[in-house]
Fold this protein.
Amino acid sequence: MKTVSILGCGWLGLPLAERLIEKRFTINGSTTTLDKIKILKSKGINSFYVELTEEEIKGEVFSFLNGVKILVIDIPPGLRKNPNSNFVKKAEHLIKKIELSCIEKVVFISSTSVFEDALDFPEYNETSIPNGKSNSAQQLLSVEKLLQSNSHFKTTIVRMGGLIGENRHPVKFLSGRKGISSGDAPVNLIQQKDCIALIEKVLELDAFAEVFHGVYPSHPTKKDYYQEQANDRNLELPEFDENSTSTGKIISSTFTEEKLNFSFTCEI
């Protein structure tokens, strides 16, 4: 029976852990909240307190990694809430600990934000060179490179689009807002269930030292998509600025689908 350590049992990591347990995996799961230890244990997860800071890693990181060969890293950079935080520094501390462990394979959940929006809505695929200029994009890209270039383990990068699910949808935030920019830009989204299925497929096929994209292959405009979603939920429609110039991008997942024989089954 395979054991997988999941660093970050949050909105995506926890249901991923539950799914892998169903598939007969043993799961080590981490949380930064001591209260959540009991919740993870109640779901059959070996639970550990692990918190990455810029100075050190707090908690039981060696126990969390002990005897395990596969690690899934699913921790948010937290740069929206704290733009001055140094995600790269945190990752460097983590990598040193991974090097001292039995870990041979890493899945890093990254983001399609490593690609820049532009006026002509460029299409980026899995082999495109990331060109994101924001602080968040630059830090994510640095962490991707640190992991990929490390000879102690093989890393697969999975860049997810905007994450949506039953209790999480941007339309709830956009509802009733006015003057929203870039209404003609395409959306790049993925349902939680497809995220989980994609990571599961990487593990099942042992597809390491790769880059994959997790984005549903349909890209309506933001205006059309979010107004339709608001209608479906009986929410006040978001209003877009018709005079604003739209910038955006299209993220292709075609290589991912072909390489993994994977189909996105959950419509956005």
Notes: The chain has a mean pLDDT of 96. The CA atoms of residues 156 and 208 lie 5 Å apart. The chain has one domain: 3-165+190-216.
